[in-house]
Amino acid sequence: MTEAVALSDTRRLRADRARQMADVLRRQVLQGAFPARVLPAEARLVEEFGASRNTVRDALDLLRAEGLVERCPGVGTLVVSEKYAHGLERLLGLAETLHEHGTVSNEVRTTGLITPPREVSARLRTPAGEPVVYVERLRRLNGVPLSLDLTYLVRDLGEALLAEDLANNDVFVLLERLSGQRLGLAEMTLEAVNADPHSAAVLEAPRGAALMMAERLTHLADGRPVDLEYIRFRGDRITMRGTLRRPDPLA
């Protein structure tokens, strides 16, 4: 068994302390905690975190490598990027979620009927070989690429949806209008993936950059699955946020 190292132990690596400090600062940056988007001076961070100046610099370097801050000689450390919070507790489209931050627009790259893989048919509960509607969109917030969405829709709703304004509407809003009922729930998984060359080019991200991949199967209120999406979010522009409650063991 590896012996634990006390926090006060000088053997504790500077890199460990820098990572610990960067985690706290990252959260503050994302919450807009610093007025005028300027981080406190190094001397103040040394005092606040009880760390050496080199550790503070290492922590700031970690945030700089993530594209969140820039260190400007004679000015200080500036916040240069912004992430947007995407809630995990409510079933909302991207434009509904981010309306406070600006305008979401959709570049529709591909649409049409396809014969889907068996896995897609099974998840949408359609007979194998039955065509579904495929929609591929690049989604931007205030003109900045945010996500690449690959969407499979059941045929009856999907074909009607293609006649709608996909450039300026969330698919969720259109599905509810066309089906005449509310959406019910969605099953979603999240994982980190690296940007493949095509995704990187479309999202204007470095090749191999970290992306947040969401796979989401959405059902109507009556339980019918109608919308299967594979969404690649730019990892440097969005953060997932939610409140988790521990279940009552007596319930």
UniProtKB/TrEMBL annotation:
The keyword DNA-binding applies. InterPro entries: Bact_HTH_transcr_reg (IPR050679), Chorismate_lyase_/UTRA_dom_sf (IPR028978), Tscrpt_reg_HTH_GntR (IPR000524), UTRA (IPR011663), WH-like_DNA-bd_sf (IPR036388), WH_DNA-bd_sf (IPR036390). SUPFAM superfamilies: Chorismate lyase-like (SSF64288), Winged helix' DNA-binding domain (SSF46785). Coiled coil: none annotated. CDD domains: WHTH_GntR. It holds the Pfam family UTRA. Residues 15-82 form the HTH gntR-type domain. GO terms for molecular function: DNA binding; DNA-binding transcription factor activity. One of its GO terms (biological process) is negative regulation of DNA-templated transcription. Keywords: DNA-binding, Transcription, Transcription regulation. The keyword Membrane does not apply. This is GntR family transcriptional regulator.
